[in-house]
Every structure is written in structure tokens, then in C-alpha cells.
Amino acid sequence: MGKGGMSHGNSGEEEENMAAWLLGVNNIKIQPFKLPPLGPHDARIRMKAVGICGSDVHYVKEMKLADFIVKEPMVIGHECAGIIEEVGAEVKHLVPGDRVAVEPGISCWRCNLCKEGRYNLCTDMKFFATPPVHGSLANQIVHPADLCFKLPDNVSSEEGAMCEPLSVGVHACRRANIGPETNVLVIGAGPIGLVTLLAARAFGSPRVVIVDVDDYRLSVAKELGADKAVKVSTDTKDVAAEIDQIKKAMGAGVDVSFDCVGFNKTMTTALGATSSGGKVCLVGMGHSIMTVPLTPAAVREIDLIGIFRYKNTWPLCIEFLRSGKIDVKPLITHRYGFSQEEVEAAFVTSAHGGKAIKVMFNL
């Protein structure tokens, strides 16, 4: 289990460490959370900002996500940033008082995938708030120091916490080789679709078109820099007409499509809208099994790319934020404190969607 996700031992701090525990369906309680002893390569971090992810909401509502099932009480949360309180004896790059963004996954560093640098695919990954590993919505956590990245003075803790969802967009753009000659289609204007839009722009894409079923989210996408926003339906019968709309909105060929939803209809749209010889990157995981027109796409040599989380993205995300190439602040629409009442209210807000994009806890 991950360092921040151990519920035994004692780190020696005087105050009682509290965390948001998922106890059952729609049942979150703030309860004591004992930290493990600080190892020589670890850091103890006081959390300052923790965002709510769609996966957190799914666990709260269903107590499971895909093959991961919450079988015992679990601390929720994985998008986080904080302040270093204490470091282990071998930690040289951090000191108490440093503000850091935290990468939430601890890989084994022994398997072939880890040795090849693709540690995000490690089958022994210990990831915050992925059963049975505890998360980071707590006063303090203990985590490997090499997964803590120092924040510049002009990057807030909230922005640091946003490095986690932004990393998904950055990793997707790297996988798809986005550059100044790449026209991009983003399907889905939820939090991940929006950070993918921001990442595509930062990587130099000259034209980005985004589609969604929701007018408000499309308006946010436009404010964030999308060239065109196309409203679509949930009806598969509309795919052909919507592909025509997308192509007209792009005004050129679609070189790369990012499906940030992962439904039959969205993937069918992505495959159909992408120009011959282009790429479709599946980012969203809405459906585990899809029926899509692969053969027509194969005939047009459409490359299908998958992504899973991210790898080595925090330094670039922080640089994008420091330099102003990416501004994630408009995505943070709701803020809550760390009380029982506010934690419950925050998850209700996040689950109901509407005008909530990113819900953030300030601890």
C-alpha cells in the first residue's frame, strides 16, 4: 500500500491527523488517520489543496470503479499539493516549508515497464484512493519525496493540485505528438477535455475544435481558447451530420482527435472525423467495451492510441503554469473547506455537474 495510504504506525506529530474516509455508498466521514513512520526517502506533507476527480465521485456513489472495489474504509482524494513539514534523512532536494505538487502513484521500479520508463503501466502501482490504497484528502500524508515537485512562487497550491488532471492532457499530447502543424479535435468538454484543450494549445496546436452536449461547458471551452465549439447530441443517428459540422468548424483536416469521453458514439465520431493518416487518442474510459467502425478507419490508416494516466509530466506541467502558457485557474469553479459538512457538500456539488468543473478543497 502507498506511503500516504497506510493506516498504522505514528509519524510523531503532536496533533491528531484527520482524513476524509469513504465508509460506504455516499458515506464520507472525517476521522483520525495515523501516518506511517517517515522513511529516509520520504516526506511528510501538510495538504493545502485537494481536488475532486470523477473517479472519487464514482467511488463515493458506487464503491467501485471498473475492477477496483472498495472493500474496507478508504481515504479519498488524489489531486493534491501542500507544504513540506518534514523530510527523511536522505532527501536532499526538499526542506520543510517548501510548497510542492504531489504525483499520486508509486510504481515498483523493478518491472520491465518501470525500467523502460513507462512506469504508469506498472501492474504493481500504488495509487492514491485506488483500493486498497488510501488517498490524500487529509491534514497530512507521507509520500516518497521524489514524487513531490517544488512549486514556483507564482504557482498556487490549487494550481499545483491541478497538475494531476493537467498531466492527463499533457501525456495525451505527448503520445499523439501534438505540435504547431497539428489540428486537434477534442471530444468532451469536461475537466479532462478542457485540460487536453489547454495542453494542445501549449504544445503548439494552431487550431482546436471541441464538442460536447452541454452549452455551458462549450462556453467555458471557448473562453479557454477553443477556436470553435460544436454542440452534439447523445443520439448515434446524428453522428454523420455532426461529423460534417466538425469538419466545417475545423476548416481543414483533423490531424488528431482526443476522445475524452469513451462512449460508442464519441469514438465513432472521432474515427469518422479524423483525416486519413491521422490519429485518434482514447483518453476517456466511459465504456469498457465499445462497438465502433474500426475497419473503415483502418482502411484510411487511422492510428488508434491509448493512454493511461501519465508519466514524467509534473515538471512540464509546473513549467507551463509558471510561464503562463497554461492557466488552470478558470477551471476551479467551487471551493470548500475541510469540515464534515463541507466535505459532504463538495461531493454533492461535484456529482451533480451543472456549472461545477473542478471542485477544490482548501485545507
Walk me through what this model shows.
This protein has 363 residues and is an alpha/beta fold. Helices cover 28% and strands 27% of the residues. The chain is built from eleven helices and 20 strands. The strands form five sheets. Strands 3, 7, 8, 11, 12, 19 and 20 form a seven-stranded mixed β-sheet that branches. Strand 16, helix 8 (264-273) and strand 17 (274-282) form a beta-alpha-beta unit. Helix 7 packs across helix 8. The longest helix has 13 residues, at 163-175. The protein is globular. The two termini are 24 Å apart. The model is unreliable at 4-13 (pLDDT under 50).
Mean pLDDT: 94
Structural class: alpha/beta
Tell how many strands the DSSP assignment holds: 20
Number of helices: 11
User: Which stretches are low in confidence, meaning pLDDT under 50 for 5 or more residues running?
Assistant: 4-13
Oligomer: single chain
How much of the sequence lies in strands comes to 25-35%
Largest sheet: 7 strands, mixed
Radius of gyration: 20 Å
What best-fitting shape do the alpha-carbon axes yield? globular
Separation of the first and last Cα atoms:
24 Å
Instruction: Estimate the helix proportion, in percent.
Output: 25-40%
